[in-house]
Design brief:
The complex is a heterotrimer.
Chain A (H helix, E strand, L loop, with lengths): L6 H21 L3 H25 L5 H31 L13
Chain B lengths: L15 E2 L5 H52 L8 E11 L2 E9 L1 H24 L6 H20 L3 H19 L6 H34 L7 H7 L7 E2 L2 E2 H16 L8 H4 L5 H10 L4 H8 L1 H5 L2 H22 L5 H21 L3 H28 L17 H15 L5 H16 L1 H26 L7 H5 L6 H16 L14 H5 L1 H4 L12 H28 L5 H5 L5 H7 L4 H72 L7 H19 L2
Parallel strand pairs in B: 1-2
Antiparallel strand pairs in B: 2-3, 4-5
Helix pairs in contact in B: 1-2, 1-3, 2-3, 2-9, 2-14, 2-19, 3-4, 4-5, 5-7, 7-10, 7-12, 9-14, 10-14, 12-13, 12-17, 13-14, 13-16, 13-17, 14-15, 14-16, 14-19, 15-17, 15-19, 16-17, 16-22, 17-22
Chain C lengths: L1 H26 L3 H21 L3 H25 L15 H21 L14 H9 L3 H21 L15
Helix pairs in contact in C: 1-2, 2-3
């Protein structure tokens, strides 16, 4: 346990975050809850990026990528929440299982 | 005179070019066209006179042109007496070169003078004769068309143009014989004429083909008459099927002549052709069309001279026809039938002359015959017209009191045909008899007997028609009068011609120089076969001349006794031998019936057989194929319905069903979608580790 | 050095913060609680970033994720719920199948991570990365950088359009997000 922290430790963290996020996506009925899950997934990816950037050849490419990921996550959150707002106005509910209008 | 333009090589005769000849046949054609297209309207506006005047003007103008060409011809030296009018190129296929070109030489001159001169007179006569005819425009149009065809026939400078005219006169003859076609008998007569003519034409064509084919084999492929005269030498020695080619060619041509000129065996149409109007009989069946065969032999005399066998055939058939037809004419009661058989008989004389090589004599008789036969027909027309279309002589009689001009002209023409000295008929007929005798006495004997019968039956006709008691009924007798000037003046002119036209052919034996024969020498050659003329033969010639006169006089006297004085009863002859002989000749030897029984029924039987074959076998096959097609198409339809459509429908249904299944994925539930994504990604990840 | 032996402790601490926060997001019944747990998780991750020599990214993470995204999420929660209710529902359904899948994914990926032979560099302190990252952004990655600005512009416009108030709706002082 007190051994050197290796790459796989960080990967484990990322994996855990990823699975938690996926769990959120799959189970949550509140639309905003689903979006939080998506944020978790993106974070997990970022952790991986940074970890690999650190433990590999020593360049800073991974960090640059993670900056872009953060930026895109923010953008996606903005749009997603705007959509949730619009849906709330229309249906007065943000329960995912209520929005089945696009069924066959 | 136009300059010489001759593309032939130097050894050909000199010919003179002209542009005038084409109008000789073209003017009547123009007249025919106008009358065909607008004749009805012209007749409505200007009456029959308008139509007739237009139609008569054309042959008259042609006559003027003919005379002008004739005088042009006589102004030329004898070796150069040929005018050629090259109109247009026509057929140039392989080695066959036939252009539309007309030629005018002494023989043509004789023919065209007769055709246009007598033709014009008949046009004038027709105006008087057809005074009650509503379709006069059609009649005159056809007459003009006939003139065009006949002139093309004699003016053509090659065999093909001649054949065009040959066919054309046959067509016009059919149309004119059947002019009153609303009567079925008239239409049938027209058909008979045309069909029998066609049989002859087939012979003509075979001759033409054989001639060209043989000449072409020698590289001499020409059918222009001028060139044939020299090219025909290539036929020497050629044989086919055991006969010389020249003989075969000329025999085939002669078959055509028997059809067109009513010789045995194809004469049967001419008596029936009397169903047409009398001017038609005069023009076509006396003066012009029937002479086409004689003209043809004269035109190609060089070929016939190379084929002595054919000439024998021609002579004997001519003699036989002359005698045969004369015997039939003895017993006929229809005035036009008598004249018809007389025509057949006289044509026989012409062919007899051609057959013995006396080409000039034959053409001479052709010319004189045209005059008196046309006069006779027109005179009979005058009688028929006055008698309101009564044609049976037994109902006539004593007409000379009522129709003097008709009577006198008719009498003059009859004297001419009987061969009384001083008339044209005497000179021409006698020439033939003499030349026939020189060839073979049997020919002379037939002609001699025929001459006697001719005199007899013609005067029988005269006595029955013009003399004695008038046997017509009251009504007709009251309306009897001389015909109009339109009809009688042509009669007068023709009667004069019957006498005077002979004087250009007076033989040396009687002190004449026979300018006619000399005129025709460039075309027909010099004195043909006929044996040696020596002074010691002169007595013989006089003897035979006297015998001709004698037999003619006998015939006339006999007719006088039987039909004028009634001293001999005609019934005695008709009842001789149980009446069988009379019945035989009265019924024309039953030739028509024999033909009908053999050829016609044979053809009809063959047609029936083939019709059965077509209906049963051919149609059976066709219907069978149709049934098979129906079955196949039914099967195709079922296949299409079940298999093809089934397949298509199955695909459509399947797509629909599958879609129905697949759309259940679209639940609209976001949760489900997310599940889907995750599950698949997981699966992919899982699969990628393998 | 002795400081080096603290390294794993720090790591585990920060990792625990991040993972517990994530668990809070996943299993919390109240959405406000989920949001706050998310914030905690973000902070933990930021700490991990610092450990990994990505201090600039850590700063960005805190600024944007916590200061931007999370606040935005809280705003959205407040705008889309009857605020009178204390407990805003955040139910979750179908946990068992989800757990199965998640566990499966975890197993697969962890197996892959362990099986792969990673090249590793030793852990050591390094200089600040801001200079390097800034340089890279404006030289090597200039194109994505510009494109990112365009994306943000379009997001800005899109968000405004999407959340624009309908004319027919009557909302007091409700405005654009």
């Amino acid at each position: 346990m007190l051994a050197e922290v290796g790459l796989h430790h960080f990967l484990f963290v990322g994996l855990a975050l990823f699975c938690a996020g996926m769990f959120c996506v799959l189970t949550r009925r509140n639309a905003i809850g689903v979006l939080m899950g998506v944020e978790l997934i993106l974070n997990a990816a970022n952790v991986n990026y940074i970890a690999f950037s650190r433990y590999s050849a020593g360049g800073y490419d991974g960090q640059v990528f993670s900056i872009f990921v953060i930026m895109l996550a923010a953008a996606e959150a903005a749009i997603g929440l705007a959509i949730v707002l619009a849906i709330y106005r229309r249906f007065h509910s943000i329960d995912v299982s209520d929005m089945q209008q696009l069924h066959w | 005179m136009t300059a010489v333009h001759d593309a032939h090589t130097a050894h050909e005769a000199v010919v003179h070019g002209t542009h005038l000849l084409r109008w000789i046949p073209l003017l009547p054609l123009i007249g025919a066209t106008i009358n065909f297209l607008g004749g009805r309207r012209i007749q409505a506006s200007f009456g029959r006179f308008g139509v007739a005047a237009l139609a008569t003007l054309m042959p008259l103008l042609s006559f003027v042109l003919v005379m002008a060409s004739f005088f042009q011809l006589t102004g030329l030296p004898v070796e150069e007496r040929t005018l050629v009018d090259y109109v247009a190129p026509w057929i140039h296929i392989g080695s066959l070169n036939a252009d539309i070109a007309l030629q005018f030489d002494p023989l043509t001159a004789v023919m065209t003078i007769v055709i246009t001169g007598i033709g014009s007179l008949i046009h004038i006569y027709s105006y008087g004769y057809m005074d009650e005819e509503p379709a006069a425009w059609r009649f005159f149009a056809l007459l003009n068309l006939f003139m065009f065809a006949m002139l093309t026939l004699v003016l053509g400078d090659n065999l093909l143009i001649m054949f065009v005219g040959w066919e054309g006169v046959g067509l016009c003859s059919w149309a004119l014989i059947g002019f009153w076609f609303s009567e079925e008998a008239n239409a049938k007569a027209g058909n008979k004429a045309f069909i029998v003519n066609r049989i002859g034409d087939f012979g003509f064509l075979l001759g033409l083909f054989l001639l060209f084919w043989t000449l072409d084999g020698h590289g001499q492929s020409t059918i222009v008459f001028r060139e044939l005269a020299t090219a025909a030498g290539a036929l020497e020695g050629e044989t086919l099927w055991g006969l010389s080619v020249a003989t075969l060619v000329t025999l085939f041509f002669f078959v055509g002549a028997t059809g067109k000129s009513a010789q045995i065996p194809l004469y049967v149409w001419l008596p029936d052709a009397m169903a047409g109007p009398t001017p038609v009989s005069a023009l076509i069946h006396a003066a012009t069309m029937v002479t086409a065969g004689v003209y043809m032999i004269a035109r190609m005399n060089f070929l016939f001279t190379m084929a002595p066998i054919t000439l024998e055939v021609v002579a004997y058939i001519g003699a036989a026809t002359a005698l045969f037809a004369a015997t039939i004419g003895l017993a006929q009661n229809d005035i036009k039938k008598v004249l018809a058989y007389s025509t057949v008989s006289q044509l026989g004389y012409m062919f007899m002359a051609m057959g013995v090589g006396a080409y000039a004599a034959g053409v001479f008789h052709l010319m004189t015959h045209a005059f008196f036969k046309a006069c006779l027909f027109l005179g009979s027309g005058s009688v028929i017209h006055a008698m309101h279309h009564e044609q049976d002589m037994r109902n006539m009689g004593g007409l000379r009191k009522y129709m003097p001009r008709t009577f006198w002209t008719f009498l003059i023409a009859t004297i001419a045909i009987a061969g009384v000295p001083g008339t044209a008929g005497f000179f021409s007929k006698d020439e033939i008899l003499w030349k026939a005798y020189l060839h073979h006495p049997a020919l002379w004997a037939a002609g001699f007997a025929g001459a006697g019968m001719t005199a007899f039956y013609m005067f029988r006709l005269v006595f029955m028609t013009f003399f004695g008691e008038c046997r017509a009924d009251e009504h007709t007798r009251e309306h009897l009068h001389e015909s109009s000037g339109w009809m009688t003046w042509p009669l007068i002119i023709l009667a004069a011609g019957s006498i005077l036209s002979g004087y250009i052919g007076i033989p040396p034996a009687l002190g004449g120089s026979n300018p006619f024969e000399h005129f025709l020498e460039p075309v027909l050659g010099g004195h043909g076969h006929g044996g040696v003329h020596g002074h010691h033969d002169l007595m013989l010639e006089y003897t035979y001349m006297a015998m001709s006169v004698g037999i003619a006089t006998t015939g006339i006297f006999l007719a006088y006794l039987m039909y004028n004085r009634r001293l001999i009863n005609p019934d005695w002859f008709s009842r001789a031998g149980g009446g069988a002989l009379y019945k035989l000749i009265y019924n024309k030897y039953y030739i028509d019936e024999i033909y009908y029984g053999t050829f016609l029924n044979g053809t009809i039987g063959l047609a029936r057989m083939l019709s059965w074959f077509d209906r049963t076998i051919v149609d059976g096959i066709v219907n069978g194929l149709a049934s098979i097609t129906l079955v196949v198409s039914y099967i195709n339809g079922r296949i299409d319905h079940y298999v093809v459509d089934g397949l298509v429908n199955f695909i459509a249904n399947f797509t629909g069903w599958f879609g129905g299944v697949m759309r259940r994925f679209q639940t609209g539930s976001i949760n489900a979608y997310l599940y889907g994504i995750v599950v698949v990604v997981t699966a992919v990840l899982f699969a990628s580790t393998w | 050095m002795e400081g080096m032996s603290l390294w794993p402790v720090v790591f585990y601490l920060l990792a625990a913060i991040a993972i517990v926060g994530a668990g809070g997001v996943a299993f919390s019944r109240n959405i406000i609680y989920s949001a706050l747990s998310l914030m905690v998780s973000f902070l933990g991750v930021a700490g991990l970033y610092v450990m990994l020599n990505a201090d600039f990214v850590a700063g960005v993470q805190v600024l944007i994720y916590v200061g931007g995204v999370l606040v935005l999420t809280l705003f959205a929660v407040m705008l889309t719920a009857q605020i009178q209710e204390v407990e805003v529902s955040n139910r979750s359904v179908g946990r068992i199948p989800a757990l199965v899948i998640v566990a499966g994914t975890f197993a697969v990926l962890w197996g892959a991570f362990r099986a792969a032979s990673w090249r590793e560099a030793p852990m050591e302190l390094a200089d600040s990365s801001t200079y390097e990252v800034g340089n890279a952004l404006l030289t090597t990655y200039i194109l994505p950088f510009e494109l990112a600005s365009i994306v943000l512009l379009s997001v800005l416009v899109g968000a405004v359009v999407l959340s624009r108030k309908e004319l027919s709706e009557e909302r007091g002082a409700g405005g654009d997000a």
